[in-house]
Amino acid sequence: MRKESHVFILPTYLFVAVPQASLRYAMGIKMKFEKKHLCTLPSCYAVSSINVDGRLKYVLATDDTGPCYSIDAETFVIETVWDGPGGTMSIIPIPGTNGEFLATQYFLPGFSALDSRIVRVCRKDGIWEIKPWITMPYVHRFDILNRNGIYYLLCCILTATDKPQADWNFPGKLLAAELSGDFAAPGTFTLIAEGMTRNHGYCRVQRDGYTEALTACDEGVFKVIPPERKGGAWSIKKVLETRASDVAVCDIDGDGIEEIATIEPFHGSDFVIYHKTPEGYAEIYRYPDKMDFVHVIWGGRLGGEPVFLGGCRAVNKEFFVLRHKEGGIHAEIIETGYGPSNVAVLPGKDREYILAANRESGEGALFTVLVD
């Protein structure tokens, strides 16, 4: 295992008379990213984190045939959770447990996912136990949402075909189920939305007291809100009319209203940010450089500053951060040549960490976010 670290220092810019949201940028705040190689994992795709016996573990898995790893956040010791089968698209911690998580398997090869399933994973007496939980064809993203003390499983189905290979003539859908207190596999699901072609994009959004989701497909971006009470109806509302592959939200300009960022179209070449106006959402930014197979998208705060993260798996294979300054949004390159697929941002005691799946270089990496 390589132990070398690299530091990437982004340039400083000085401006005057800027809005409050841009003060950190205007005052010459440097955002630095210190990279550590965690593991070599061919086609590294899914990333998440869990806490087992009071210790933070990074979890990384391939979307190809191959393993899932758990890496201790302090010692960086690697454990193999499973050697196969692979085909992991999502890794979701189970709330209130000792590091148990759900993960997809058998979403492979490529978009051949008729046999895809979700497994339940736990670590007992030093051994990882993997048990089949639900078999669900073409489940790509899924999540556990919470509202008023009730947990719900939301499953995003890429396509509704019953054939071994994805068929976009059969649009995807959203399935949901209420979960029991022990998170047993639900026996029945409710169809809450359909007609979603290439139902690929997903973003969990934390609201005051509950979680909701944004999903993205050819038909647009949809807000998905769990029932207000047990047995109630889900709320599904289209918020953006665009062919979107993936989606994230962040109030990057600090005006109190979240912007929506999208990757367009499916596995596309454009990273776009929209600002809400009285007439609807209007485009305010489009990444200026040539890209292809854009896949990373995340919105939130790094070093106390609202940012978007983006990355692509082709051309320059860059990983970048978007920050707001007077007059617009500025892109800064974190690194090139690695081809990231997904990231997870983890809070630390006094800084954030970015867990990155660099799929095209077969690497799991950790970036420490530092600000001066």
Care to describe what's here?
The protein has 1 helix and 29 strands. It is an all-beta fold and 372 residues long. The chain has a domain at 1-40 and 246-372. The strands form 7 sheets. A 5-stranded antiparallel β-sheet has the order 1-2-29-28-27, with no helix packed on it. A hairpin with a 4-residue loop joins strand 28 and strand 29 (363-371).
Brief summary of the model shown:
With 372 residues, the protein is mainly beta.
Helix-strand blueprint:
Layout: E1 5-9, H1 23-26, E2 31-40, E3 44-52, E4 55-62, E5 68-72, E6 78-82, E7 91-93, E8 101-105, E9 117-124, E10 127-135, E11 139-147, E12 150-159, E13 171-178, E14 190-196, E15 201-207, E16 210-217, E17 220-225, E18 235-240, E19 246-250, E20 259-264, E21 270-277, E22 280-286, E23 294-302, E24 305-312, E25 319-325, E26 328-335, E27 340-347, E28 352-358, E29 363-371
Antiparallel strand pairs: 1-2, 2-29, 3-4, 4-5, 5-6, 7-8, 8-9, 9-10, 11-12, 12-13, 13-14, 15-16, 16-17, 17-18, 19-20, 20-21, 21-22, 23-24, 24-25, 25-26, 27-28, 28-29
